[in-house]
Amino acid sequence: MIDHDSILYQDPDLIAVHKPAGLLVHRSMIDRHETQFAVQLVRDLIGQRVYPVHRLDKPTSGVLLFALNADVARRMGEILVTGGVQKHYLAVVRGYADEQDVIDYPLLEELDAIADRRARQDKAPQPAITAYRRLATVELPLPVGRYTTARYSLLSIEPKTGRKHQIRRHMRHIFHPIVGDTTHGDGRQNDFFRQQFNCQRLLLAAMQILFQHPVHGEALVITAPLARDFRDIIDKLGWSDIEAP
Questions:
Q1: What is this structure's pTM?
Q2: Beta bridge partners of 16
Q3: Is CB count within 10 Å lower at the N or C end of the chain?
Q4: d(CA 9, CA 119)
Q5: What's the rounded Cα separation, in Å, for the pair 234 and 197?
Q6: Residue 57 among the catalytic residues
Q7: d(CA 119, CA 141)
Q8: Distance of alpha carbon 149 from alpha carbon 141, whole angstroms
Q9: Which residue, 58, 35, 45, 57, is CA-closest to 15?
């Protein structure tokens, strides 16, 4: 699932790979049946220990960054905390979203009954901000639910904070859930995409990450190609000429 062709960037301090949808970043009590993880696969690929710098949800594909030693991992953590990392995502959502907007909506921490059983259960909602701009729209002459046609938007999304499932939850909050989201999405839309387009994934991809190198300060821009299954849906929706992010 991750091989040498998956490497997007590598130097003595950092490595970035293109994570496929459906792969966990690391072992999780929530998905105890899984046997493959990005941390393990990248470690085995390059023959050394790696340290995840950030998270990508299991169903999300795209740029995943690792540090190659503990000191660089610490420095990257500091850059993340101070807002020094920009991330750009691509998503297909239900309906016609506004041309652009900033969603400023605090989110309660999502706790898992197993993994977070010792965490505080009464934490106040945490600040969460997501900006987006609309790249394209389409209306399909096909009924979904009570509507006679189906409308969708292609969005470029930039989370300003890093809450768990932030993009997916914010899109649901503004009534434009991401297609293929089985947790925060619209089941009828998901079923429609499975039947009409054979879409078996969440239509959310981490396209680009920008930051200053933690060791020598060089500005880095790391971009992932769109996964083939995502690209196939984009083509079927008539958005082949759209450039993102």
A1: 0.92
A2: 9, 65
A3: N
A4: 35
A5: 10
A6: yes
A7: 48
A8: 5
A9: 45
Closest alpha carbon to 41 in 81, 83, 7, 87: 7
Q: Provide the pLDDT for residue 106.
A: 97
Question: How much is the pLDDT for 194?
Answer: 97
Angle at 204 between CA 98 and CA 223, to 5 degrees: 100
CB 24 within 8 A of CB 17: no
Provide the pairing of β-strand 150-159 with 100-104. Answer: unpaired
Cα atoms found within 13 Å of the Cα of residue 228, Cβ hemisphere only:
1
Active-site residue (options: 57, 71, 186, 241): 57
Residues in the chain, total: 245
